[in-house]
Amino acid sequence: MENKYIKSFLLFWVLMISTIAASAQKIQGVVTDSLTNEPIPYASVYYEGKGVGGITDADGHYSVETRQGWNKLTFSSVGYVNKVVNIIPGVTKTMNVKLRSDDIELQEVIVKPKREKYSRKNNPAVEMMKKVIAHKRNNKLDENDYYQYNKYQKITMALNDVTPEMLDKGMYKKMPFLKDQIELCEETGKFILPVSVDETASQKIYRKHPKSEKNIIKGMNSSGVNELFATGDMLSTVLKDVFTDVNIYDDDIRLLQYPFISPISSSDAISFYKYYIMDTTYVDKDRCFHLTFVPNNSQDFGFTGHLYVLADSSYTVKKCTMNLPKKSGVNFVDNMDIIQEFEQLPNGEWVLKTDDMIVELTLMKIMQGFQIRRMTRYSDYAFDELPQQLFKRKGAEIKEADAMMRGEDFWNQYRQVPLTETESSMDVLVKRLEQMPGFKYVIFVLKAFVENFVETGTKDHPSKVDIGPVNTMISNNYIDGLRLRMSAQTTANLNPHLFFKGYYAYGFKDHRSKYMAEMEYSFNKKEYLPREFPKNSITLTYRYDVMSPTDKFLKTDKDNVLVSFKTTTVDQMSYVRNVALKYENETQYGLKTTVEVKHSKDEPTGGLAYITNDDKKTLIPDIQTMEASLAFRYAPGETYINTKQRRLPVSFDAPVFTLSHTTGFKGVFGGEYNYNLTEVGIYKRFWFSSWGKIDMFLKGGAQWNKVPFPLLIMPAANLSYILQRETFNLVNNMEFLNDRYASFDISWDLNGKIFNRIPLLKKLKWREAIGFKMLYGHLTDKNNPLKNPGDSELFLFPTRDGHPTSFVMDSKTPYMECSVGIHNIFKILHIDYVRRLNYLDNPGANKWGIRLMVMMTF
Fold it and tell me: Which of 1, 92, 649, 685 is 20 to 30 Å apart from 750, CA to CA?
């Protein structure tokens, strides 16, 4: 009995000591000024409403006790904005906090009265900004004959605003190890859970005459959820493109795939922004003028922020902070903060030293938010003459051979921003996730949804064959009826130079098999797929399938289940059997050359028939062609993201010039016709600042020889409900047949410029768009069967139930259609109302229609 009391007594004291120890745990750290980084003495640190806290000492240090259930700590000081941060008692041990001066809290209602009368005339802030803009050329690096610098960048993606309570509920409850991964973001005061980290160490070199600049990637390191996807590089590439580097000295800052007007833009800044002089202050011991700026309309794509300009005759920007207005029309972005700091080199040149960006995103209210944090550091600037051989290397971006195999010694030298403890343990997080029951099935489904392909391998044994595209497995058309298709492609894991792909399809209406087999040899070693930029390959293709004449104009696979739903009956089709040998070569400078030879056999089916234009009206069972083509495509500055299904242009800003010529050979391998087809095209996107963007296409072509109608030029018709670039929405299949044509396509996305000024609409963030398409067509007499009766070389134009379905255009009257659209509905849906303006009497002509597209844009 005595022993029992001794044990109870000892247990009681152990519990008491543990309780006291727990209650005595402390949080400590330093409180500093967010601008000057100087410590803030005698700042208050306390739990709101608890009566417990402390103050910082003369050096800004503090230490306060933690209590179970007390999860928020408040920091305050006279002249600063209060800051409330989340903590985890017993877990959070150290927390450094930056406070922001209350005179730079940028809100329009604080800067000036809400209904101010702002004038640019005789405004000292505007006059100062004019001087800053006038002097900015002195601070542009490309004014030097040569320059070079080293750059380190870290991009971290994390779940945002993660709380301990959240991790004890729902699906997170099954992942208790996530609690070990959360950390505090000092800038936002919120807990985050990093899920991926991408690091890049590079060197930029520049030569003015002749102009050349190259980015040499010395090291790349990626960890986290990227490893779970074969196209993980797609995620990092998208992040780098969407949250790209910012240069305030540019007139337009490309961010979130849109151009934002820079606060020191030479062309638009003064008219787009309102400026205010706040006071003078010191930034790192340099005396500066402090200015704030806001857009005239808070919903336009612009920034609010602060400029700190040296108080001397140079008018150099010492520091800049920018963020998006709360009412901005940008999708998904809750907050964005950009901080740039500049430093002066010994030679007197001012250069960028720090470029940080923190973005808080919410895709849907029911989903957990994300934080993207990009930290960039620039160092080792030099302006000495560089060896000319450095600029002879091909490409604007050069990746060193061992860039992705760098060890810790390399990163210890180049990593200017240390990894946090959780960022360093990404590999542990991935392993724990992979060990969860059922997790591999979740990833399997996500991969199929995101990549549209299903892998047949594992992480330890990478996929050599991928099954897909998934969205082509089930479709429908007039000839096939229900169509089932199975497709596959090999990857570089099987062979980095030799690739195979193909499909087998079966139509349950015509009871025929269709198939395609393709072999491609890449002269460049590929990481995963042969289409990776730049391409230098030769391809042999054999195909037997049922095709509509308009299928070739689709930018997606013709078996995509979404485009199988048509706006009208498409019964004029063909069974096509062709063999093609194609060589493609792309240069780093945007020039693509394609050489192709192809033999085709075309067998009309459904409502299509080839009937000679003579008295016999002979039914031709099929036609055969043998042709060779040469095509050039020049798109300077165009870059891509590689996915398993296709390459996606990172931006559509690059102008695109195309030129092609195709020659048919009669008597060669069964070819029945001589012909020559030439086509040329130009595309360009034009940005109009806050007025959005205009996309413009110009095309023209000619079929020079006498040919039957299957070899004439038909309009690029889109007969699906899905919007497709470079196509006509209300032209029917083969409705117009020409041997000369010129087309014009213009679309203007106003980016909400009008809707943002309508009180009831601006909250919806809808964006208006208008478009106009026009086609000039001409058919010369030699190719018009109506003007050549009895000519058996020509075919009668197609008919349906005895009525013609193809027509000759009036060369003086172009076909025209227009569109009015509302985009960004629910942030993903684009809907256009399209209207046909003429040729309304053609049988089967649709006078109007609704077209849509699902696409997420910022």
Answer: 649
Cβ(108)–Cβ(114) below 8 Å: yes
- DSSP, res 704: -
Continuous segment of H or E residues that includes residue 340: strand 333-344
Q: For residues 249 and 140, is the Cβ–Cβ distance under 8 A?
A: yes
For residue 684, what are its two tokens? 């360009």
Checking phi first, is residue 141 left (phi over 0); if not, alpha (psi -120 to 50) or beta?
Answer: alpha
Number of H helices, E strands in the chain: 9, 45
- Which of helix, strand or coil describes residue 257? coil
The residues that bridge with 573 in the sheet, in sequence order, are 605
- By the 10 Å C-beta count (0-12 exposed, 13-18 middle, 19+ buried), 113 is classed as exposed
Q: For the chain, what's the residue count?
A: 858
CA gap 308, 725 in Å, rounded: 45
Q: For residue 301, how many other CB atoms are within 10 A of its CB? A: 26
Give yes or no for a contact between 372 and 154, defined as CB atoms under 8 angstroms apart: no
pLDDT in tens, 707-763: 999 999 999 999 989 888 889 999 999 999 999 999 999 999 988 888 878 877 777
Q: Alpha-carbon distance 603 to 626, whole Å?
A: 15
Using H for helix, E for strand and C for coil, what is the string for 541-586?
EEEEEEECCCHHHCCCCCCCCCCCCECCCCCEEEEEEEEEEEEEEE
Give 275-304 pLDDT, tens digit per residue: 998 888 888 888 899 998 888 876 677 888
H or E segment and range at residue 355 = strand 350-361
Nearest to 309 by CA among 292, 322, 294, 290: 290
pLDDT of residue 110: 36
Contacts 24+ apart (CB under 8 A), 305-311: 305/106, 305/263, 305/338, 306/104, 306/106, 306/278, 307/132, 307/263, 307/264, 308/281, 308/283, 309/128, 309/132, 310/286, 311/280, 311/287
DSSP 8-state class, residue 78: T
Residues 785, 795: contact at Cβ < 8 Å?
yes
Q: How far apart are CA 366 and CA 452, in angstroms?
A: 25
Read off the pTM.
0.77
Give me the residues paired with residue 688 across strands: none
Would you call 391 helix, strand, or coil by DSSP? helix
Which residue reads 């003369």 in tokens? 58
Alpha-carbon gap, residue 820 to 834, rounded angstroms:
7
Paired tokens of 24: 């005595």
Biggest alpha carbon distance in the chain? 124
Quote the tokens at residue 444: 């399997």
Task: Pull the structure tokens for residue 477.
Answer: 């058309």
Going 635 to 641 to 644 to 646, the CA torsion angle's sign is negative
Report d(CA 511, CA 289) in Å as an integer: 79
pLDDT bucket at 2, cuts 50 / 70 / 90: very low
**What value does the mean pLDDT take over residues 184-189?**
80
3-state per-residue secondary structure call for 613-651: CCCCCCEECCEEEEEEEEEEEECCCCCEEECCCCEEECC
